[in-house]
Amino acid sequence: MFLNGTVLALAVKKKMGTESAQKILLYGMATSLFLLFCLCFWLYWVRHGSPVAPHSTSGVGTIIEGKVFINGTTSIGRIDDDFVCATLDWWPPQKCDYGTCSWGRTSLLNLDLNNVILLNAIKAFSPLKIRLGGTLQDRVIYQSNEQQPCSPFVQRNSDLLRFSKGCLPLSRWDELNNFFKKAGAVVVFGGDNKPQGFAEGAWNSSNAESLMRYTVNQGFTIQGWELGNELSGNGIGAKVSADQYASDINTLQDTVQNIYAGFDVKPVVMGPGGFFEENWFREFLQKTTKSLQVVTHHIYNLGPGSSDNLIDKILDPSFLDSVSQKYSRLQSILKNSGTQAVAWIGEAGGAYNSGHNLVTNTFVFSFWYLDQLGMASSFDTKTYCRQTLVGGNYGLLDTNTFVPNPDYYSALLWHRLMGNDVLSTNFSGTNKVRAYAHCSKKTQGITLLLINLDGSASVQVRVSAENATDPGISPLQDPKTKFARVSRGSKIANLTREEYHLTPKDGDLHSQIMLLNEKMLTVDSSGVIPPLEPINVSQSDPITIAPYSIVFVQIPYINFSVCN
After folding, report:
1. CA-CA distance, 157 to 20, in Å (whole number)?
2. Where does the UniProt annotation place the signal sequence (predicted)?
3. Does residue 113 come out as left (phi exceeding 0), alpha (psi in the -120 to 50 range) or beta?
4. Cβ-Cβ contacts under 8 Å for 285 (sequence gap 6 or more)
């Protein structure tokens, strides 16, 4: 454009003189700049101005089309109403890993039970299931009477796990139970006391029995009693054979039945609370068919918290898929052992030894966490306990301030939206999208969870639902494929769905601030948990998942008979 203006000026110079030619040249340059400005503005509008799902990453990048297939013939799993669970641990402030001390005052022995954010964070779930336990539970002594000396854990390198045995005062047990009742929590308790190394001989149940009797006499409610922590297989610090562990579980069952005689609803017996080793678990389950109600195992598949490639693993679909083998094998053992026990994840922090600051307590960890919730559900896991509610670098709440980390809001949305019945779900278009679907919780339809592990591509998703029923207004079904389809002129085409788009602040995967539909989620000055409000989107529009984002989609117009 500048060249054309120059040629024109030279052409008229001969006829009109130098002054006129300069004026024409300036005019041509101004015109060219104006047209260039208009072009830039148009490109910006095309890129940013069209209405798409909210996102925080820089630039739109590639747009991929995908399709999620949901089969509603039957449910492939069923979760508890209080499937989302979190742990509270015993670690004292002196617990340090890789030069970082990340536990503060979050132990069951010193946790600030007057903190209003902590109270509100638990109450928001109504209820939140909480598992009390962790590595040091095998080193806890329960005070049997108020006159008995009761000393806390003391750091001592010569002892197992570098801490002495510690004592739970009865007064503290009272405080904890009164707090949990006020918060509306559902509590399970893990405990044992085994020596270092290979633990031979029968479990001495006398100390645990005294705590149980005190608990009943005080009117406290415990949903389950769990025996031991990470003593199965090779164990952590100590190990118990499957045969001995089964015998100990039988003892625990007899103790519970005796202490809770006359109760219509008795606590469940749980164990072993360790890492899954196929042969050990098979023998253990075969020998506890009449005494065990819940088989618990732990997930730390990302490796140590000191690892430098945690994010690479979290964003790798193949790595995320690899842990499914454990779920599948345990599910198979349960089906073939004759037991009535169901599976729980009793503890899962992803990266062991307290996690990794600015990874396991930031937005990026929701990719791993929500994928775990979806995967565990699809293998009929009834409850999933996150390590921790607060404490370490993997808490749902910040160790020092109790302010919710991103995973807290991910957990809360799951708890409120994902119903009991799990639906078979497959995604096509890219392997970077993880997809899970459940019947919706307390409302009609289904809820879909979509996780985009791709940082450079947005994904536009269409939903196909096989064997959807007709509640009066539902997708039309193709008689050949039995998949739901929608015609633009149908009544359903005017319906809307609710979407919850989760992104990190400033597009930073290491951010500890999560955005919901582009609004920051923060507690107010009174410590109140913010509302989690969706956006309404027309059924005729595809679901758009921004790069590095998560979306829950509540779809009321897709219904399956299994959801009724």
Report:
1. 92
2. none
3. alpha
4. 292, 295, 333, 334, 337, 339, 341
Catalytic: 347? yes
Active-site option among 347, 466, 498, 499: 347
pLDDT-based confidence at residue 332 (cuts at 50, 70, 90)? very high
CA dihedral 364, 367, 369, 373 (to 10 degrees): 170
Spell out where 349-417 has E strands: 351-352, 383-386
CA–CA distance, 303 with 309 (Å, rounded to integer): 10
Q: Which residues, in sequence order, are CB contacts of 353 under 8 Å at separation 6+? A: 97, 98, 304, 305, 306
User: In whole angstroms, what is the distance from residue 121 CA to residue 396 CA?
Assistant: 10
Q: How far apart are CA 176 and CA 182, in angstroms?
A: 10
Q: What band does 493 get if pLDDT is binned at 50, 70 and 90?
A: low
Round to whole Å and give the CA distance between 177 and 558: 42
Give yes or no for a contact between 284 and 228, defined as CB atoms under 8 angstroms apart: no
Between CA 142 and CA 166 the distance in angstroms is 9
Residues 246, 271: Cα–Cα separation, whole Å = 9
Annotated catalytic residue, options 19, 65, 209, 230: 230
With 0-12 CB in 10 A as exposed, 13-18 as middle and 19+ as buried, what is 445?
A: buried
Instruction: Output phi, psi for 286, to 5 deg.
Output: -65, -25
Give the amino acid at 311: I
Structure tokens at 483: 């998949």
How many residues are present in the chain?
A: 564
What's the CA gap between 403 and 117, in Å, rounded?
7
Q: Which residue has the tokens 């009272």?
A: 174
Q: Which helix (H) or strand (E) holds 456?
A: none
Adjacent-strand bridge partners of 137? none
How does pLDDT run across 346-381, given as a tens digit for each residue? 999 999 999 999 999 999 999 999 999 999 999 999
**Alpha-carbon distance 155 to 173, whole Å?**
22
pLDDT at 60: 58
CA separation for the pair 368, 362 (Å, rounded): 11
Please name every residue paired with 304 in a beta bridge, in sequence order, or none if there are none. 352
Q: Which residue has the higher pLDDT, 460 or 51?
A: 460
- Collapsed DSSP state (helix, strand, coil) of residue 312: helix
**Residue 53, SS3 per DSSP:** coil
Are 353 and 329 spatial neighbours (Cβ–Cβ below 8 Å)? no
Assigned token pair, 332: 């198979």
Residue with tokens 């209820």: 127
